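Standup notes, structure subgroup. Blocker cleared on the adenosine monophosphate input:
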Amino acid sequence: MDGKKLEYKGAEALKEIQRLTTEADKVQQDLLKEILTRNKRTEYLQKYMTGVSTDDVHEFKKKVPVITYKDIYPYIQRIANGEDSSLISGHTIVEMLCSSGTSGGEPKLMPTIAEDLDRRTFVYNMVMPIMNQYVTGLDEGKAMLLYFVKAEMSTPCGLPARAVLTSFYKSKHFKTRSRDGYNDETSPDEAILCDDSSQSMYCQLLSGLIHRQQVLRLGAVFASAFLRAITFLERNWVSLCQDIRTGKLSPMITDSGCQLAMSSILKSADPRLADEIESICSRRSWEGIVCSLWPRAKFIEAVVTGSMSQYIPALKYYSMDKLPLVSGMYASSECYFGVNLKPLCDPANVTYTLLPNMGYFEFIPISKDEAYGRDDEEISLNKLVDLVHVKIGCYYELVVTTFSGLNRYRIGDVLQVTGFHNQAPQFRFICRRNVILSIDNDNTSEEDLHKSVMAAKRLLDPYNALLVEYTSYADTSSVPGHYVIYWEIKHCTSSVLDKAISLLSPKVLQDCCIAIEEELDDTYRRCRTKDKSIGPLEIRVVKTGTFDLLMDLFIKGGASINQYKTPRCIKSDAALKLLKSNVKACVFSPRDPTWFPK
Ligand code: AMP
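Run returned:
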């Protein structure tokens, strides 16, 4: 990799970011040349770039098509079945990474080579030096970072097939990670590496509680996993306190790695600490619980951009809005992309600076409207823009070329350029393309739906009710079809949902239905009002914990806790069945939304 060096610390890391961003174009062009030098003899590239040209880059840009997963899948499948890596890469494919995207119901498999771990480590090593510029003294305490692995599978030829974070946590890069310049972590590696997620969570929280007075930062990879930890704590704090009180680990923990690691953390009975935690956790309201349990925490580290932004209110609730929410990096199974150089900024203003040594980045310019539309059009190659030539304010879909064999692969993310750091552009994450609800001509994107749900959820505020989670479904079982939105609502002073529902009259929920519809786009409202091709929107309130069950279902089906994001639109029959069986109340929009013919 560029510079070949991984171990950047403190000022040296910041200097390297300066260098990479100042020379972004050169770094990108050199990187593409190197990828082509290494990979041009692969079967895939030979199909497009015949012979060995003196100007490979030119040839690549002219001839190699922009693709999606279905185009590369036959090659991936052949490698998974035992054919040589040279089909797509000049290096050995050492494992397949399971991304959270699916293709035909199966997780997508992304090829990876050994040195990709170096690239990922490089990005991780940049995050704390950036943070240390804004928050001092982080090396004087501990970090409670909740990380999880998931069970691995293997391909027919025996290659490991696992989540990118599982691969990283199991690597020697993670085991030997440098903790210089920042704090020690409370979670023992054995607990992180335990693939029973309940035992892993229990031990990580137990250790975090034992060290509560030393914890200076806390979080998880995505906001959803951190909130899941709080729900877990709500259900298990009595047992956790009991362990601390007696100095004995719950018999529920049967994993020998966890038992061994916890024996050196849970060394003796500490009834005073147990009393403190018990008195905090038995409060009627859990508002601000994070600050009470970890009083020295300075920020919460978890991605809260993109689809994770809907968790911001819940995180603010549990932290009394006192702790900054830090989204440190932007990455995927295909390639790690970039870092947030202003980690303490408001979540709404987060931008990621793409690091030009991670992969070769190109951009498909799109209009704001296209950003939310379907993505199955052919891409003309002369439309593609290089990293340093994107324009401020414009929207783009990200395309990557990697050493491991993805060539001009569409990640499916839509980004908007907000500015530049030296030569390197900075991007706001807009949405994942292709996540839409559609009944007629309407094309509702994830972001449209999110915006509308957020507008409606404000109507819950006067009732002290919080929208915990939502998803949607295009119900076409009757004519006309209609949008169904599943809501999980929590009453802030009670964890009993029934009470929350009884406090929310059907009228409030009807108002929420129409508020969502009023916020959806012109086409939707025309279909509803003039064409009558879409029926009234329906909100179905589900029981507390339903979305946890939904996550369990997806995890059983191959998703990982770290990477899990609630799908904003449900297509699977099993998931729909689960949601339907947990419905407590249904209401429909009471009237047509407003629409003015143009
Ligand atoms: P996966 O391949 O399962 O690791 O998922 C990668 C996808 O997660 C990316 O392509 C994005 O859509 C999303 N993602 C990752 N990091 C962020 C981030 N910082 N903000 C918003 N979305 C993100």
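Discussed briefly. Residues 99-100, 164, 303, 305-306, 327, 330-333, 411, 413, 429, 432, 563 surround adenosine monophosphate (CB under 6 Å).
Next: hand off to the docking folks.
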